[in-house]
Every structure is written in structure tokens, then in C-alpha cells.
Amino acid sequence: MAVSFIRTILLYIVIIFAVKLMGKRQISELQTSELVVTLLISNIAAIPMQNTGQPLLSGLLPIILLICCEIFISKLMLKSQKFRQMVCGRPVVIINNGKIDQSAMKELRMSTEDLSEQLRQLDIFSLQDVAFAIVETNGKLSVLKKPEKLQPDASMLGIVVPDSGIETVVVSDGVISNFSLELCHLTTDWLKEVLRRQNVKLSDVFIMTANKDKNYNIIKKEETP
Amino acid sequence: MKRLIITTLLLISTIALCGFELFNMNLVSRTMTDNLEAINSLVSSGDISEAKKLSSQTYEFWEDKMKLLAVFIQHDSLESIEECLALMNISLENEEISNFLCENQRALVQISNLNDTEYPSIENIL
């Protein structure tokens, strides 16, 4: 049991490192090769966790090799579009200028129910609203609505909206985030001055957000009973 | 770039580890095979005391190398060879020649199989 315990922790650390090494792409939308690697890594890692008769290296080595392959392949895909197409395929247009391409749908083995479901998930309840629909290489559907069905934005209405920039979390659970302060072009001195004026201690702050216009919002920690 | 360097280093390390395993596996299996055959010859020629000495040394050698091999190879295979060697030793101590010959042969076959399965041949890969 103790061996399993230690191996689980070690493998967990290795997998976290592996995911970090593969980059943020792994954490968000997955391409075909990335999905394969993710599934393989999870299955391989489980074997030496449960079977202590199996050497730990027999789990670690394949994981490391898969990561290496994934990184090399992703670098190659950046350099060569042909290779990228070979591995990931190409996006497929299934609705072109409002007209459904039935042969493209057949090629993707996509039924009308699948199409309707994906459109509904994008808050589109009528095929008549769609100008273009493209199935991306990761299987997701991207949609461009017809101009008359688009939601008007500020520029269309001729409204000038003030730009307050990004609002970030500058204090989280009593800890200052210098990265967030830099993003909003703010300083630690300004933050400390705000807290002093508000008569709030840094350690009492649960969350504090701010933007470049020095608008801030402070939420204090709840008092423990 | 940093990621690519780390990946390359990891790849080189894994290749080096595989090479290290093969080298040690080869060395150990050759030594063990030679020793087991020598013990067999000594017993056949009637020199039981020399055979007992060599058998004991071989067993200690295996116990020592097993710690390293256990990092790379399934423990079951290594433990079964250790069992054969232990039984072989006991049979030799009690001068049970037929049992000794059985265990000696079993150990030889298992070591040969172990070496064959670890070698990256087409049959093993497929």
C-alpha cells in the first residue's frame, strides 16, 4: 500500500509536469494528436500505480516518450502546413452562404440532429439564421450568422463606449498579484494607499479587483464564528 | 525553444536509460548463464564442493544485480529466477542431484527468456 501511495504522488507530479511541458493548448481545446496523448498518458499512469510488481519506469518512460513525440509533432505542425493537415485534417464548411452542404455532412458522418444540437449550444435555434458554419479540426462548430440576425454592437449603434481596460484580481486571499498590477499599470504603493484609506488590512482582503482607471472593488474575508 | 531543449534532453535520457538497461541485462544474463553452466559441469564431474561454492556465489550475485534489474523489469520474472536459484542451492546442499538439475535447467531457460523478451527484436515489438 505504501508503495502505491508513493508511486501515485510521484506519477501525479510527473503528469502535472508533462501537461505543463505540453503547454496551455493541452488544457483548452484538444486536437486529434493531443487527445490521443492525453488518453494514453492517463491509462499508462494507472498501471504502475495499481500494480506494484510493475517497475515505475515502465509507466514513466512511455509518458515521457509520448510528451516528447507530442512536442516534436506540434513543432513540425507549426513549420509544415501539409504535415498539419495530415495530422489534424482541415476545417470543413457545412453551411455555405446559408446552404447546407449535404455531401460534407456525410463525409463528417454528421447527422442533422448533430448539427441542430451544436447550433443550439451556440444559441442558434433556426438554420435560417446561419450564413456560414464550419466544423473545425477539433470537432467544434464555428458559426457566422447572417448580417440581419447579428446582435448589434456599440459601433453599429454609433455609441462610444469608454475603455476601462482589463479588470484583474490584484489581491487574492491577502496576497498581492504583481503580475495583475502590472497589467493594469498600477503600483503596490497605490494599492496600499487604497487599503489604508479604506481602513482594510491586506490580510483581511478576500479579493480585490482593479482596472487601469483605478476603479477598484474590495471584498473582505468573512469573519469566522 | 526552452521546451524543445527540455524535450530533447528528456528523449536523450530515455534512450540512455534503455541502453543502460539492455547493457546490464546482457551482462547479468551472460554471467548467470556461464555460472549456471559451470555449476552443471562441476556437478557432472563430481566436484560437489566447488559446485556448492559457485552456486552460493551465483545466488549472491543475482541478489545483488536484482536490485538494479527490478528498476527496469517486471518483478515477477526476477523473483521466479531467484526462487529457482534458491531451490538449486538447497538441492545441492542436500546432494539431491536430480532436483538440482531440474532447477538449474529452469533457471537457465528463464534467464534466456528474460534476456530475449527485453531485447528489442521484431518479434518482441510485434
Please give the structural blueprint.
The complex is a heterodimer of chains A (225) and B (126).
Chain A: H1 2-22, H2 32-50, H3 57-79, H4 81-88, E1 92-96, E2 99-100, H5 102-107, H6 112-121, E3 130-135, E4 141-145, H7 154-157, E5 168-172, E6 175-176, H8 178-183, H9 188-197, E7 205-210, E8 216-220
Antiparallel strand pairs in A: 1-2, 1-3, 3-4, 5-6, 5-7, 7-8
Helix pairs in contact in A: 1-2, 1-3, 2-3, 3-4
Chain B: H1 2-44, H2 48-69, H3 75-93, H4 97-118, H5 122-125
Helix pairs in contact in B: 1-2, 1-4, 2-3, 3-4
Largest interface: A-B, 16 and 18 residues
Multimeric state of these chains? heterodimer
Instruction: Spell the H/E element sequence of chain B.
Output: HHHHH
**Structural class by secondary-structure content of chain A:** alpha+beta
What's the helix count of chain B?
5
Q: What is the helical fraction of chain A, as a range of percent?
A: 40-55%
Q: What structural class is derived from the secondary structure elements of chain B?
A: mainly alpha
Q: Biggest sheet of chain B, in brief?
A: none
**How many individual β-strands of chain B?**
0
Instruction: Give the low-confidence spans of chain B.
Output: none
Number of strands of chain A: 8
Q: Could you name the key traits of this structure?
A:
heterodimer; A: 225 residues; alpha+beta; 8 strands; B: 126 residues; mainly alpha; 5 helices; 0% strand
What do you see in this structure?
The complex is a heterodimer of chains A (225) and B (126). By secondary structure, chain A is α+β, with helices and mostly antiparallel strands. Chain A has helices at 2-22, 32-50, 57-79, 81-88, 102-107, 112-121, 154-157, 178-183, 188-197, and strands at 92-96, 99-100, 130-135, 141-145, 168-172, 175-176, 205-210, 216-220. A four-stranded antiparallel sheet of chain A has the order 2-1-3-4. Chain A has a four-stranded antiparallel sheet with strand order 6-5-7-8. By secondary structure, chain B is mainly α. Helix content of chain B is 87%, strand content 0%. Chain B has helices spanning 2-44, 48-69, 75-93, 97-118, 122-125. In chain B, helix 1 (2-44) runs antiparallel to helix 2 (48-69) and helix 2 (48-69) runs antiparallel to helix 3. The two termini of chain B are 35 Å apart. The interface between A and B is medium-sized, with 16 and 18 residues.
